[in-house]
Automatic annotation (TrEMBL):
Reaction catalyzed: oxaloacetate + acetyl-CoA + H2O = citrate + CoA + H(+)
Listed name of the protein: Citrate synthase
Any one GO cellular component localisation term in the record: cytosol
List of catalytic residues: H273, D327
Organism: Prochlorococcus marinus (strain MIT 9303)
Listed GO biological process terms: carbohydrate metabolic process; tricarboxylic acid cycle
GO molecular function: citrate synthase activity
Family: Belongs to the citrate synthase family.
Length: 396
């Protein structure tokens, strides 16, 4: 049977239909994260996201995602202590980062430095539970240190060493801002990390699972996922949202901006989602966190623009099921925490490592290499001819 075309749906030789972007195609079974996109519900391992973000910590949620159950008090203490012990990165990694161009994007720096960890720890002993545990600990511990290090290295400064007396998120803010954070700021960041930790088969997690399915090491799995998260249609949108709000400039321009974007078929950043037909439940919580920070530390004038844009979009994009996603309010939160704009996506990555590693473990538990098919649309049966006898398609 040859390939056939029926309207937009096309079939490969086995008759399986082609769905652009794999929309609605299940490519794995997973017990990690459940999304109800019509109701706006999200749960990790059966726990609603609102409960986790209100009561859990990022490290506890990481443990839950990766090992399936909430840790006992002793298990959590051990995990926190191990992560704290492995926060430092080798001087070799720091020296390598000093050779990165200062103008490079921090996501590219992170992808390279995450991959470089494989040079130190890549035994590929992925059947050994101790190796798996250590790899999880190292990645969760070192990624924030590497993100903070690049921020200072690109300014020609030496990175700040982690402080053992500070908890995970407080220590990250300390390494980044060079001062001990207010406890509210540290807790808000920790809650943001919980909210971003996992989201089923988004593009970067799919990328992580594909890479994992070759049985390569976890550092390569994370590096490939970081590269995927960086794109503006995925995690990179959080950076673009603030640029968009600044371009709009004031609340009364939000409607015109939207009309123009829709007329010219330009995507409105921070809106839309493959899974949700309502406002992303994480955006609801992030908006609340932004308001908590504004009440304490002063408002951000772009917040009024964001609210006006959301209100204007409700009538223009809402009927198509397009609402704010997780990237819409996160930048306003991060900015209030003193995080530079081009570190918004690396902060997302610090958190999403938990989800990527949970999927890495799950993939290895029932592995089959990902190798989908394609529908070939190219030329057939051509004959090679010497270059001096060729005529180019432009006639040159
Ligand atoms: C952490 C995250 O990754 S969250 C997502 C972050 N990305 C963004 O915020 C970028 C803006 N949003 C988008 O590009 C998309 O909504 C995505 C990438 C998130 C989802 O994409 P898909 O599920 O493939 O939807 P797709 O791009 O096919 O859009 C479907 C329709 O909705 C429209 N649409 C989707 N998102 C938007 C948007 N943000 N602004 C305007 N229109 C939109 C499309 O133009 C399309 O309309 P059409 O049917 O008339 O052609
Ligand atoms: O699920 C998606 O496609 C994108 C997303 O919201 C995420 O990765 O958090």
């Amino acid at each position: 049977m040859g390939q056939e075309q029926v309207g937009e749906i096309r079939h490969d030789r086995s008759g399986i239909s082609f769905r652009p972007g794999l929309e609605g195609v299940p490519v794995t079974q997973s017990a990690i994260c459940d999304i109800d996109g019509m109701q706006g519900r999200l749960a990790y391992r059966g726990y609603p996201i609102a409960e986790l973000s209100a009561h859990s910590s990022f490290l506890e949620t990481t443990y839950l995602l990766i090992w399936g159950d909430l840790p006992s008090p002793q298990q959590l203490r051990d995990f926190e202590a191990e992560v704290q012990m492995h926060r430092r990165v080798s001087f070799r990694v720091r020296d390598m980062m000093k050779c990165f161009p200062a103008s490079g994007h921090p996501m590219d720096a992170l992808q390279s430095s995450a991959a470089s960890l494989g040079l130190f720890y890549s035994r590929r002993a992925i059947d050994d539970p101790k190796y798996v545990y250590n790899a999880v600990v190292r990645l969760i511990a070192k990624i924030p240190t590497m993100v903070a290090a690049f921020k200072l290295i690109r300014k020609g400064q030496d990175p700040i060493q982690p402080r053992d007396d500070l908890a995970y998120s407080a220590n990250f803010l300390y390494m980044l801002t060079e001062r001990e954070p207010d406890p509210l700021a540290a807790r808000v960041l920790d809650r943001c990390l919980i909210l971003h930790a996992e989201h089923s088969l988004n593009a970067s997690t799919f990328s992580a699972r594909v890479t994992a399915s070759t049985l390569t090491d976890p550092y390569a799995v994370v590096a490939s996922a970081v590269g995927t998260l960086a794109g503006p249609l995925h995690g990179g949108a959080n950076e673009d949202v603030l640029a968009m709000l600044e371009e709009i400039g004031s609340p009364e321009h939000a409607g015109d901006y939207l009309d123009e974007a829709i007329a010219s078929k330009r995507k409105v950043m921070g809106f839309g989602h493959r899974e949700y037909r309502v406002k992303d439940p994480r955006a609801v919580i992030l908006q609340g966190l932004a308001e908590e920070l504004f009440a304490r530390f002063g408002t951000d004038e772009m917040y009024d623009v964001a609210k006006a844009l959301e209100a204007a979009a409700a009538t223009r994009l809402g009927p198509k099921g397009i609402y704010p996603n997780v990237d819409f309010y996160s930048g306003l939160v991060y900015r209030k925490l003193g995080i530079p704009r081009d570190l918004f996506t690396p902060v997302f990555a610090i958190s999403r490592v938990a989800g990527w590693l949970a999927h890495w473990r799950e993939q290895l538990g029932a592995n089959r290499i990902f190798r989908p098919s394609q529908i070939y649309t190219g030329a057939q049966n051509r004959t090679w001819i010497p270059s001096d006898e060729r005529v180019s398609s432009t006639g040159a």
